[in-house]
Write a structure and sequence with these properties.
InterPro entries: F-box-like_dom_sf (IPR036047), F-box_dom (IPR001810). This is SFRICE_035106. It holds the Pfam family F-box. The protein is mainly α. It has 5 helices and 2 strands. Helices cover 51% and strands 11% of the residues. Strands 1-2 form a two-stranded parallel ribbon. It is elongated, with a radius of gyration of 15 Å.
Length: 93
């Protein structure tokens, strides 16, 4: 029987994913569908979420996954006023 990354049981995988940073958890989602599903089940239990206004598309994706269980939000405002307005309207409707 061939063992691949997608054969790791969900519970041990969830325990591993809990220790990843937000960036690493997002990278882990690209390993395989099983890992992506594990991230969605795990729902990103992070105490801190860091968002950068200039990375709008990434912010939308990250907030969709991690928004339910984040306790603190660090928002880096690294752009001009129209970009901030667009960011606020998309990420925080």
């Amino acid at each position: 029987m061939s063992h691949t990354w997608s054969t790791i049981p969900l519970l041990p995988l969830r325990c591993i994913l809990e220790h990843l940073s937000t960036e690493d958890a997002l990278a882990a989602m690209s390993v395989c569908r099983h890992w992506r599903d594990a991230i969605h089940v795990y729902e990103g239990h992070k105490d801190l979420l860091k968002l950068k206004v200039k990375q709008l598309e990434r912010c939308k994706f990250v907030t969709r996954i991690f928004k339910k269980n984040v306790r603190k939000l660090h928002l880096y405002i690294d752009c001009n006023e129209p970009e901030i307005d667009k960011f606020m309207n998309l990420v925080f409707p």
